[in-house]
């Protein structure tokens, strides 16, 4: 995993936005995998700014969201479809038909989940999957114990997740108990992952994800098996990483390489 540590969430969000922007510019009809939650919010704000001020064009982009609460329709203020409209889609030039969020009110979830996977395939697969992480180390709603090969399906929320999300619903008893979520296996098939985590409450999850053993108890740790994950963290979330100095060294080399400064790295050029 490439680990980028920024001083604060604001600059980390800008850094994250750079990866999305580069892809959208290089491949205007790219497929983005999107996440909800407080983590990607300021990255989305930055993308909206770039759309409005710099003409970043989303007209051909297709998107697939990771998950949705079961029982919540698109007009429910806590549904992830509503979140995406408010925090991104309503402010950029993406045609609504090109945005996909699992349907929390599907009548037949088995069929819906199969079709969601099929649609991702038909669009050519996800080019860049944006991910946050739960305090218990879950990605999307793949709670501890989820199969690391899992596909889009229904999942029961863990107590920790219900507790974490109670603030949005005004009480734990109001949080839906089930969600429809892409599986870990689905996420691992994306070409690239942008894994974001900010704040001290994510420090343990980040440590376990990046430096811990690969385990279904921390489903984000499966990202260690992915060929191209970029982790962008703020200082607070990266605080428990043991190899931070090494990651900084790798980043320095990466920047020099991108700038073509091969000599500074001791690489001879003719
Ligand atoms: N299903 C979502 C995840 O996709 C998200 O990563 C996590 C963290 O949310 P936040 O970014 O608000 O901390 O919350 C939920 O569980």
TrEMBL record:
<keyword id="KW-0378">Hydrolase</keyword>
<dbReference type="GO" id="GO:0005737">
    <property type="term" value="C:cytoplasm"/>
</dbReference>
<dbReference type="Pfam" id="PF01182">
    <property type="entry name" value="Glucosamine_iso"/>
</dbReference>
<dbReference type="GO" id="GO:0042802">
    <property type="term" value="F:identical protein binding"/>
</dbReference>
<dbReference type="InterPro" id="IPR018321">
    <property type="entry name" value="Glucosamine6P_isomerase_CS"/>
</dbReference>
<comment type="pathway">
    <text>Amino-sugar metabolism; N-acetylneuraminate degradation; D-fructose 6-phosphate from N-acetylneuraminate: step 5/5.</text>
</comment>
<dbReference type="GO" id="GO:0019262">
    <property type="term" value="P:N-acetylneuraminate catabolic process"/>
</dbReference>
<feature type="site" description="Part of the allosteric site">
    <location>
        <position position="153"/>
    </location>
</feature>
<feature type="domain" description="Glucosamine/galactosamine-6-phosphate isomerase">
    <location>
        <begin position="9"/>
        <end position="223"/>
    </location>
</feature>
<comment type="function">
    <text>Catalyzes the reversible isomerization-deamination of glucosamine 6-phosphate (GlcN6P) to form fructose 6-phosphate (Fru6P) and ammonium ion.</text>
</comment>
<dbReference type="InterPro" id="IPR006148">
    <property type="entry name" value="Glc/Gal-6P_isomerase"/>
</dbReference>
<feature type="site" description="Part of the allosteric site">
    <location>
        <position position="146"/>
    </location>
</feature>
<dbReference type="InterPro" id="IPR037171">
    <property type="entry name" value="NagB/RpiA_transferase-like"/>
</dbReference>
<protein>
    <recommendedName>
        <fullName>Glucosamine-6-phosphate deaminase</fullName>
        <ecNumber>3.5.99.6</ecNumber>
    </recommendedName>
</protein>
<feature type="active site" description="For ring-opening step">
    <location>
        <position position="136"/>
    </location>
</feature>
<feature type="site" description="Part of the allosteric site">
    <location>
        <position position="155"/>
    </location>
</feature>
<comment type="similarity">
    <text>Belongs to the glucosamine/galactosamine-6-phosphate isomerase family. NagB subfamily.</text>
</comment>
<dbReference type="GO" id="GO:0006043">
    <property type="term" value="P:glucosamine catabolic process"/>
</dbReference>
<feature type="active site" description="Proton acceptor; for enolization step">
    <location>
        <position position="67"/>
    </location>
</feature>
<dbReference type="GO" id="GO:0004342">
    <property type="term" value="F:glucosamine-6-phosphate deaminase activity"/>
</dbReference>
<feature type="active site" description="For ring-opening step">
    <location>
        <position position="143"/>
    </location>
</feature>
<keyword id="KW-0119">Carbohydrate metabolism</keyword>
<feature type="active site" description="Proton acceptor; for ring-opening step">
    <location>
        <position position="138"/>
    </location>
</feature>
<dbReference type="InterPro" id="IPR004547">
    <property type="entry name" value="Glucosamine6P_isomerase"/>
</dbReference>
<dbReference type="GO" id="GO:0005975">
    <property type="term" value="P:carbohydrate metabolic process"/>
</dbReference>
<dbReference type="GO" id="GO:0006046">
    <property type="term" value="P:N-acetylglucosamine catabolic process"/>
</dbReference>
<feature type="site" description="Part of the allosteric site">
    <location>
        <position position="156"/>
    </location>
</feature>
<keyword id="KW-0021">Allosteric enzyme</keyword>
């Amino acid at each position: 995993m490439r680990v980028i540590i920024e001083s604060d969430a604001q600059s980390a969000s800008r850094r994250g936005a750079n990866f999305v922007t580069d892809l959208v510019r290089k491949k205007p009809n790219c497929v983005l995998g999107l996440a909800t939650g407080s983590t990607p919010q300021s990255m989305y704000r930055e993308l909206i700014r770039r759309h409005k001020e710099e003409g970043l064009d989303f007209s051909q982009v297709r998107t697939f969201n990771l998950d949705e609460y079961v029982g919540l329709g698109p007009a429910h203020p806590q549904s992830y479809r509503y979140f995406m409209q408010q925090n991104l889609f309503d402010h950029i030039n993406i045609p609504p038909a090109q945005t996909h969020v699992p349907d929390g009110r599907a009548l037949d979830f088995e069929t819906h989940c199969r079709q969601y996977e099929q649609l991702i395939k038909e669009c050519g697969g996800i080019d860049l999957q944006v991910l946050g992480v739960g305090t218990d180390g879950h990605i999307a709603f793949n709670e501890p114990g989820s199969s690391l090969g899992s596909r889009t399906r229904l999942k029961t929320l863990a107590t920790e997740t219900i507790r974490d999300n109670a603030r949005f619903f005004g009480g734990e008893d109001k949080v839906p108990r089930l969600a429809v979520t892409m599986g870990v296996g689905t996420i691992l098939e994306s070409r690239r992952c942008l894994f974001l985590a900010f704040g001290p409450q994510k420090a343990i999850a980040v440590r376990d994800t990046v430096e811990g053993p690969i385990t279904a108890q921390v489903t984000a740790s499966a990202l260690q098996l992915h060929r191209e994950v970029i982790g962008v963290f703020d200082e607070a979330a990266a605080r428990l990483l043991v190899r931070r100095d090494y990651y900084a060294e790798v980043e320095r080399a990466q920047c020099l390489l991108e700038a073509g400064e091969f000599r500074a790295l001791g690489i001879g050029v003719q």
